[in-house]
Design a protein that fits this description.
The chain is of the alpha/beta class and about 300 residues long. It has 14 helices and seven strands. The chain has a domain of about 200 residues: Rossmann fold, CATH 3.40.50.
Length: about 300
């Protein structure tokens, strides 16, 4: 007898430091979507074998039978693991819909660099840091990311959205995403999705350090975050920040070098994937398609 598992039919796969937390929190508000609340399962990019498919399935045990099940792990699009992720994902969920959220590649590198430096808890010169963690730069080559994903998934299973368009008109991008996911994209559903901002913004604030990163993994963190006064939270963050001096931006000369390196790639990527979603009103994109199957059958 076939083993029926509840697995995600769609996921936000990246890119890191590109606004994915806000998007996942928004999709969590949709009545037809079950977004796994603890972002970043890291199942498909994890080399450790102790966590099997039963462990992964159990993460979604609370999903309603009629919901579109989703998860978000932006590290799936990291350059050093996107091939492994795509291959494993295609083996287990070949019909998955993948959302890749991107931003200006240099801004993403800058934010990622600050995070890695903060988590390392040591002061590392920029040249040494980029040599130690080449994926910081390589992950901003979104064209290469999509090319890898397309080795395992059809183009129509992949949606690329841009952070600047999302900031300019969230309703339009939400409509595009819901249409892609084939769930209710009516004006009412879009309003529901856009009703709540992220509980905490992690994408563009600089990093809070390794201790705070560990705290955020605590199972009661979200509840505590909602109950604690904003002043107390801000004070706690300041106390948890590491004492070394973490730069908030790339050195000008490094940024110039990276801009020269990525100028052509970024231009070509935008030409291919920008759809002008910000020019479309939500009402013009509110088609409500039939949902995809909600259960994956695995032999």
């Amino acid at each position: 007898m076939a083993d029926t598992r509840t697995l995600p039919q769609a996921m936000v796969v990246g890119a890191p430091k590109s606004g994915t937390t806000t998007l996942c929190n928004a999709l969590m508000r949709h009545p037809d979507i079950y977004m796994y609340p603890k972002k970043e399962t890291h199942y498909f990019n994890n080399l450790f074998t102790k966590r099997d498919m039963d462990w992964y399935e159990d993460l979604f045990a609370d999903a309603p039978d009629d919901a579109l099940v989703m998860e978000g792990t932006p590290d799936y699009a990291m350059s050093d693991c996107v091939e492994r992720t795509a291959r494993r994902l295609a083996e287990h969920i070949p019909d998955a819909k993948l959302i890749l959220m991107v931003r200006n590649p240099i801004d993403r590198i800058e934010s990622h660099y600050v995070q890695m430096l903060s988590n390392a808890r040591e002061e590392i010169p920029i040249e040494e840091a980029l040599e130690k963690w080449p994926e910081i730069v390589e992950t901003s080559d979104y064209g290469a990311t999509v090319e890898t994903l397309e080795k395992y998934f059809a183009r129509d299973q992949i949606l690329v959205i841009f952070l600047d368009e999302y900031k300019a008109d969230k309703d339009a991008v939400h409509a595009e995403v819901l249409d892609f996911l084939e769930v209710d994209a009516s004006d009412e559903a879009i309003a529901e999705v856009g009703a709540q901002e992220a509980l905490h913004r992690r994408e563009d604030q600089g990093m809070d350090g390794a201790l705070l990163a560990q705290l955020r993994r605590w199972k009661h963190y979200e509840r505590l975050n909602m109950l604690m006064p904003r002043r107390v939270i801000a004070m706690g963050k300041r106390l948890l920040r590491r004492s070394i001096d973490v730069p908030s931006s790339l050195p000008p000369e490094t940024r110039e070098q990276l801009e020269a390196e990525f100028a052509g790639k970024w231009k070509r990527f935008q030409k291919e994937f920008r759809t002008g979603s910000t020019a479309s009103s939500p009402s013009a994109r509110k088609g409500n398609k039939q949902k995809a199957p909600l259960r994956q059958q695995l032999g």
